[in-house]
Automatic annotation (TrEMBL):
The keyword Zinc applies. Its main location: other. Involved in 1,2-propanediol (1,2-PD) degradation by catalyzing the conversion of propanoyl-CoA to propanoyl-phosphate. This is Phosphate propanoyltransferase. One of its GO terms (cellular component) is bacterial microcompartment. GO terms for biological process: 1,2-propanediol catabolic process. It is an enzyme of class 2 (transferase). Its cofactor is Zn(2+). It is found in: Bacterial microcompartment.
Length: 228
């Protein structure tokens, strides 16, 4: 082996050693494993003050039935009927507290029953969404928009988000174990001060992966993505 060949081999070895060192350093400083409890959302309605008055009587208030995991939110005793061009869904739960705008969250199959094509959206993004008739014990309202299929998302506090290198609005992948497990992509991160760690998906997505309330999923790291 001549001098040039020896020099080239030495340089190659140095480069390989440096790359290995950087890899070890990156693995040492990588984000810890994030295990996320699952919350499954069935169809439900969030009402504005105006629509609450129309459906349940002027000045009426929601009756708390049970708290949900996110602080300040709860399932109410009150239910409504949703009516669309093709059919209706009865006893749809109202969630509290009241909001500034009424929002109807349904599944894709619910849309088939009602005869509406609700877009997959993040909560609050109601522009150009279909309307639907909501019927309560004291009256009814015909909404011109507000029906959506909720985009799967994760609620997380700022402290946890910082620990796991997450930002509000970013999308991540999660791994679901079990016989029907797999990778669920495009899960949106929602960071808020009072959030409790939880991933929200609808009934159809949960059934597809064999998930139940309280099951846990795991964030997929960059190194894990190379395996699929």
């Amino acid at each position: 082996m001549n001098y040039n060949q020896q020099q080239a081999e030495w340089i190659t070895q140095q480069i390989l050693q440096e790359l290995a060192a950087h890899k070890d350093l990156a693995e040492t400083h990588s984000s810890p494993t994030l295990s996320i409890p699952v919350g499954i959302s069935n169809r439900h309605v969030h009402l504005s003050r105006e629509d609450m008055d129309a459906l349940f009587g002027h000045g009426s208030t929601l009756t708390r039935m049970k708290a949900v995991k996110q602080p300040g939110q709860y399932a109410a005793e009150e239910t409504v009927t949703l009516r669309g061009p093709k059919g209706e869904l009865q006893k749809v739960r109202v969630l509290g507290p009241l909001r500034s705008a009424t929002q109807i969250e349904i599944s894709v199959s619910d849309g088939f029953v009602l005869g509406v094509k609700a877009p997959v959206r993040m909560s609050g993004d109601l522009e150009n969404s279909p309307g639907i008739e909501i019927i309560g014990p004291y009256g009814r309202v015909l909404k011109t928009d507000g029906a959506i299929v909720a985009w799967r998302h994760i609620h997380i506090s700022p402290a946890q988000a910082e620990r796991f290198a997450l930002r509000d609005g970013m999308e991540i992948d999660v791994r679901i174990d079990g016989h029907r497990g797999g990778i669920l992509s495009h899960v949106v991160v929602r960071v808020s001060a009072d959030a409790v760690l939880e991933m929200h998906i609808d009934v159809e997505e949960a059934n597809g992966f064999g998930l139940r309330n309280g099951d846990c999923v795991t964030r997929v790291s960059a190194s894990d993505r190379q395996d699929y």
